Amino acid sequence: MIGFLSSCRENETPVNIQLTLERTEIEGERFEQILHLQTDPPGKPWTIAVDPESEWCSFSRTSGTGEAHFFVTAAQNQGEPRTAIITATSGNSSASVELIQFTMTLVQIFGNTNFSNYGQAQNLRIETELDWTAEITEGSSFARLDSTTSGTGDGWISVTFYSNPNGTARRANLRITAKNEDVSQDINLTLTQGHAYGNIERYVPMRIELPQVRDTTWFIQHKVGDIVNFALEYDTGQRHSFWVAYILTDALLVNNRPNTHNFGFDPKIPRELQPHRIINGQIALPNYWGAPYNYRYERGHLIPSADRRFSQEANTQTDFLSNISPHLPEFHGIPNGVWLNLENQVRTWGGQANIDTLYIVKGGAIIPPGPGDQRYIVEVLTRLNRTVVPRYYFKALVQRRGDEFHGIAFWLRQERWMARRAPTRADAVTIRELERLTGINFFPNLSVVGEQLGQPNLEEIVETTPINWSRWPGM
Asked: Do 330 and 426 belong together in one domain?
């Protein structure tokens, strides 16, 4: 956001002041960003201040000369959204920008929000410091809350869906309301039961890259003609994929199409069940992620755009929001985030002439397993994009060389201050260990392929054998 305005006394040289603020709309948590101030003519002295009612907004500098970059810090906001007017003054000239801070997330919900047609009860975790109540506001004829419907602080609730005899997909809405003395905040979570959209293709024999797909989630495939570009398992409540699966070969790494980065909704998922914001009552694309790279989160691809440049359609599909996950710039970004560096290494492996096919599954750990089990943590944003921010990301890979198979997996913690580095062998685990960490059965079709090749224990061997680093050069 840029603001500038100038005024001057008669015969005084005009001073133009330019203010550039990275973001003019921020979440309610404590937030720090850079303000750029420039004067024309250059080298003029200036002061910076905020309107008297906005003491929640402070500066690392309040005066200076000429061009400057300095921090603007907003304290956390547990009340209603608020606005600060930031004004720079030089002589009789001034310029202002407006900063809006929303209410911080007062309540967060974790858990599997997809339910079986056979009828099922599932636990959902509530994390808050406030008093809260829970209710089913839509779908109460087939969904109910069991016992606990209110509490104070962190807790668990149980949701039961009755059996669905006709199998038609249906949805319920769970509303959690958290309150303090100043504000009341609602979180609405969509609960889905039954197969919908791509789920009729749930079982695909001989597709080695596919993990086992549960009957309580959405399974979607995107194709280019008859070629499966990639597949994914999607959580409609958390608005994030459990995983994305695809193959990589040297033939698919032909770079004859540009990366478009034309982000859009996945046409196989209703827009309200994807990350979004509301503008004038209409669902619109989220604006929380994106360039410049000093934003808090970037739009991180799960299947990389650079892995699908053999056709424009294939590349465009990688920009669907179902394939996007919020990444910290230090974790993913250009030029040396650990996730990006690992993507480059995987492409190198996929292009090796002696590897027939690389089978790949990637994702973020988005669902805590249950009460008392803290295997991984989920960070949540709900204000602007209504999706989760995984704390951990994973990759599981199997390479095929003729009838020979080798596996490797990676488990990476998303951290702001630790991730600008190359991946190391310490980040690698066996596929079986990654299955324990995520609860995902990664390559079940290896057992079928093994039977055909006369290797009945192929899946067990590939997933449990210590990593053979000679098969994974460059680490």
From this structure: yes
- The total of other beta-carbon atoms located within 10 Å of residue 417's CB is 7
- The DSSP code for 2 is E
In this structure, the answer to whether residues 208 and 316 fall within a common structural domain is: yes
pLDDT digits (tens, 9 = 90+) for 45-76: 999 999 999 999 999 999 999 899 999 999 98
* Same domain flag for 307 and 208: yes
Query: Based on the domain organization, do 278 and 426 belong to the same domain?
Result: yes
User: So what's the pLDDT on residue 349?
Assistant: 95
Q: Which of 140, 165, 193 is the last residue of a domain?
A: 193
**3-state class of 92 per DSSP?**
coil
Which range is most confident: 116-130, 265-279, 347-361? Answer: 347-361
Q: Which of 85, 101, 117 is the last residue of a domain?
A: 101
Q: CA-to-CA distance for 431 and 235, rounded, in angstroms?
A: 23
Looking at 248-393, list the stretches that DSSP marks H as alpha helix, in order from N- to C-terminal side.
312-317, 329-332, 338-350
CB 271 within 8 A of CB 385: no
pLDDT digit string (tens) for 113-133?
888 888 889 899 898 889 999
In this structure, are 87 and 118 located in the same domain?
no
pLDDT of residue 208 exceeding 60, the answer is: yes
pTM above 0.85, yes or no: no
CATH number of domain containing 145 = 2.60.40.10
Say whether pLDDT at 196 is over 50: no
pLDDT tens digits, one per residue of 383-398: 556 788 898 999 999 9
Strand residues in 41-154 grouped as ranges (E): 45-50, 57-59, 63-65, 68-74, 82-90, 93-101, 107-110, 114-115, 120-128, 131-138, 143-146, 150-152
Per the structure, the complete domain to which residue 438 belongs is given by 197-471
Does 271 share its domain with 345? yes
Name the token pair of 244.
């994305």
Q: Is the peptide bond before 41 cis (omega within 30 degrees of 0)?
A: yes
Cis peptide before 292 (omega within 30 of 0): yes
Rounded to the nearest 10 degrees, how much is the dihedral formed by the CA atoms of 235, 241, 242, 246? Answer: 140
Comparing 195 with 329, which gets the higher pLDDT? 329
In one-letter notation, the amino acid at residue 295 is: Y
Radius of gyration of the chain (CA): 25
pLDDT value at position 9?
A: 47
133 residue type, one letter: T
CATH of the domain at 257: 3.40.570.10
Instruction: Return d(Cα 401, Cα 314) in angstroms, integer.
Output: 25
My answer on whether 111 and 93 are in the same domain is no
Burial of 168 (0-12, 13-18, 19+ CB in 10 A): exposed
In this structure, are residues 197 and 220 in contact, taking their beta carbons and an 8 Å threshold? yes
Same-domain pairing of 201 and 130: no
